[in-house]
């Protein structure tokens, strides 16, 4: 708020005068009048001729007017005591009284006491013995003048005058003594006040000089009036050199906005660019307050150098919104950008897409070459992504080895797919870390608004599911639309699948695993089927991709584990110890209840943990948090294996640092063994490496006898059949299959009557 100083002429009325102060001012005024009138009275008495007694009446009337006026003003309106017109009025009345008195009486009657009439007004109300000497001195002076001037006066006249003037002079002495005392006290008060004011001024000056903030005062013409030492340090000069300097030579006048202060009622806080005398600049936080007084408007500027503070704030803000390793926007900034993009899309009706990307075999690079190499790879990936994208297509690091691209508005799903294909092609070129070529390819999932979701959670979930579908299919990229089309056969929704899990509509489907050493059925791998009351039986391929992209996969896998352990307990009761495997997915490794549920079920049925195997594909094995989950499962006694394994240098290195006990080769790897271009040595090396690490190797979906013979020659441990499509009974577990039975299963012609699970 602007401070407004009172004008000098209005200071006195605004002060509340005490009774003593009012009386003292009036008495001092009367003393001044006495000093002025006394010489005039003597001059008139000496040089004016005596007149007739006619004016005596008028002089007697003036005395009560004079006394009444002075007393009334002193009591009721003490502020008038310092007004010039009131002083002139009292002076005029006093002079008129003197002239009338002198004209009314004969010359021997000395009128000197009339000059002291004002002080008699004070003496009449107070008693003070001091001043007797002064009054006697005045009396003697008056007598000497009277006798010397009028030697013809009689003794009686002189005696009468003596009595009269002794009385008057006694009162006069009392009054003078009182006034002398009051004047002395007044001088002492003035001295103390002056000393206090000087001390206060010194303290104020010391405060301004020692305060840590720079303080400037600027007049109406925008020139500096004063500056403290902190201001000199801020502008790198002596404070005295700032005096008279235009403020726009020190601060940016446009940013400071001094002209706007005339319309503002409160202090203004703003920032402005400052210029030091050495030519350097800084950012100043300025608090401007306007003070209005008799001299005009004065602006008080309190300045603080906030250059480092703003730089620190900007750095902290950058760190909060960017990934420290790659410099890309992080999850926080990405979420805000997606919310803004979604709000704009809803308002304008334009589509936009989200591309969720994941590096293949990143965990292998970390494990084989160390985390520093992994960090260098992530930095190189970020640079390559930015080099392939426009500035309007921001890329962010979601976490780990996951990145997200949000192309600009009005990008169709087809355009997003072209961007995904472009990125996949760009990552076919290897990266070189310490002169070592590293193959780090992308798996990209694409989801578009509004086709695949209308909120952020749904879009990200759809893109995540599409990305894992692309990783499983090794096709580089996939769209949520393609995934949904494969998943929604039978016209069901995610809510229907969630209800099916809760209502127990899921059934266990088992595929036997044959041991190649003795052709016995040694274990089973499980799948889940959905028996929908309206649609019928749905195979896993029809609904599992939908479940993988949502949180439904967590209760679904827990349900599958329960069904598997219950079936395992039934087989045990029928006399067969069966090893059984259950597939887990990326979202399951973050399920805090899965391992505890497995332990409780095994304990409840009295089953050994070693007979249960949790299978994870490569995408799951390298996902965030998977390593901790797999080791925790292994430490609890449960076996863990890798499913759909494709031998590459990176994936083979991954086997060395994982708790896997079983490797299951992907179907496309197994089925190409009989082709002319097949490299059986890679499979042989994979099997040998797995055996050296204490793992067993199982080939999946074997469909012909030639492939079976190759696998036997490569020392593969077990296999599953491509055409096994009938139920597994307890009695068949542990039994050997003869050559005819194996041939029938391989060709799909073996169709024994389907039997219910025991």
Features:
Alpha-Beta Plaits, single chain, 4 domains, alpha/beta, Beta-Lactamase, 8-stranded mixed β-barrel, 758 residues, rod-shaped, 22 strands
Give a concise summary.
By secondary structure, this protein is of the alpha/beta class. 50% of the residues lie in helices and 18% in strands. The protein contains 28 helices and 22 strands.
Walk me through what this model shows.
This protein has 758 residues and is an alpha/beta fold. The protein folds into four domains: 17-188, no CATH class; 214-311, Beta-Lactamase, CATH 3.30.450; 322-487, Reverse transcriptase/Diguanylate cyclase domain (Alpha-Beta Plaits, 2-Layer Sandwich); 494-731, TIM Barrel, CATH 3.20.20.450. The protein has 28 helices and 22 strands. Strands 14-15-17-18-19-20-21-22 form an eight-stranded mixed beta barrel, surrounded by five helices. Strands 1, 2, 3, 4, 5 and 6 form a six-stranded mixed sheet that branches. Helix 6 crosses helix 8, helix 17 crosses helix 19 and helix 20 (553-573) runs parallel beside helix 21.
Strands of the largest sheet, in order across it? 14-15-17-18-19-20-21-22
Mean pLDDT: 76
Number of helices: 28
**If classified by CATH, what would the architecture of the largest domain be?**
Alpha-Beta Barrel
Q: Give the tally of structural domains.
A: 4
Rg to the nearest angstrom? 55 Å
CATH homologous group name of the largest domain? EAL domain
Helix content class? 40-55%
SS-based structural class? Answer: alpha/beta
Tell me about the largest β-sheet. Answer: 8 strands, mixed, barrel
**Total strands:** 22
Q: What is the CATH fold-level name of the largest domain?
A: TIM Barrel
Uncertain ranges: 1-17, 485-490, 751-758
What is the terminal separation in angstroms?
Answer: 89 Å
Strand content: 15-25%
Shape: rod-shaped
